[in-house]
Amino acid sequence: MRFPGIRGFAVLAAAVAAGGLVPAVAAASVPSVPSAQCAVADAMVKAGDYWVANGTDLAPADWQNATFHVGNLAVVRTTGVSNHQTLPWGEANKYLLPKTPGQPFAAGDEAAGEAYLDLYTYFHPEPPILADLRSRLADEVTSVQSGQTGYWDTVDALNMAMPSFARIGVMDQSEATLDAMQKLFQHTEKQAGLFNELTGLWRHDAGARDFWSRGNGWALAGLTKVLQALPANDPRRPEYLRVFKKMATTLSLVQRPDGFWNTNLLNPFDHAGPESSGTSLFTYGIAWGINAGVLDTRWFKPVVDRAWKALSTKAERSDGFVGYVQPEASGPGAAKATDTAAYGVGAFLLAGQQVADLTPGCAPPAA
Fold first, then answer.
1. Residues of the chain with pLDDT under 70
2. Which class in CATH covers the domain with range 5-358?
3. Contact 95, 89 (CB under 8 A)
4. φ and ψ at 150, to 5 degrees?
5. Any idea where the domains of the chain sit in the sequence?
6. CA angle 116, 120, 125 (to 5 degrees)
7. What is residue 330's predicted lDDT score, i.e. its pLDDT?
8. Which of 144, 146, 147 is closest to 165 using CA atoms?
9. CA distances (Å), 191 to each of 196, 230, 235, 279, 282, in order?
10. Which positions make up the signal peptide (predicted)?
11. Contact 347, 280 (CB under 8 A)
């Protein structure tokens, strides 16, 4: 029997008080899933289409748009339906990563690399797409080798930068890249102390006290992507999987009865109410864990079912608008039904990708 959400809060509050390249496929060859068969596919397509028609500030290759485009390509890979927006976005940005003055390896600036990797891996295997990403990571690896391991000083870096290190490291068979990734992760986890072993949750940064929903969503999603990329025998994998499982267990205990998670995971009275971006990222990660056989289906599938019902019936409107997205922040805060953002839509689309794999009738027909 599953613990009620409020009991999970009490348990965890007490704990705190105590102390290789995938073969590319042409977009046209991706089989489509008729929406009449799969409501998940229909929800994904509507959400992506609504954002490209009505979203704001769609041009930059920043972390917000990068998160959307990773989700947007997940729609194509899941449903076979494309709004043909991600390739033009990448082309317009010349497949370059942003540059923050004085911060040559800012993790948020590397988020677009994941979208470029998806374009390259699944649709357009053209080397120029990855040229700037490879150059940036090579320079960062050199810096890490010199002892600079503190670049991932906030939890969102685990989603913005870590997956690209894993994928490029495996693709290029670069032990140096994977070793640098491990050093950066260990600094974030242990030296900076962002991961709390008692709760199984992450703080946003070294000065944060609360356990923020979207911050933990970034961590779970990042680990999910890294675990997908690394070979089963990679020596770094066990620690990533341990943290992933510990997070998933905690999250299963503190889920709200309505399927969402609060923005402050261990304080349901702080900015109480639905929030969809953290909920989407948790749904993505936990659903993948079930699909991959690393999380127990009997315990975790009800968590995913409740979360997806909340996301698809309350966060998403009938026209595809995805609301209750907490605005850009670095900690818990309020989210209204009218709040939306590129990263919230992208996270919703990623959740749908994994939920579709769990849903009867949503498997793509044979090509």
1. 1-36, 363-367
2. mainly alpha
3. no
4. -100, 20
5. 5-358
6. 150
7. 96
8. 144
9. 12, 24, 20, 28, 25
10. 1-28
11. yes
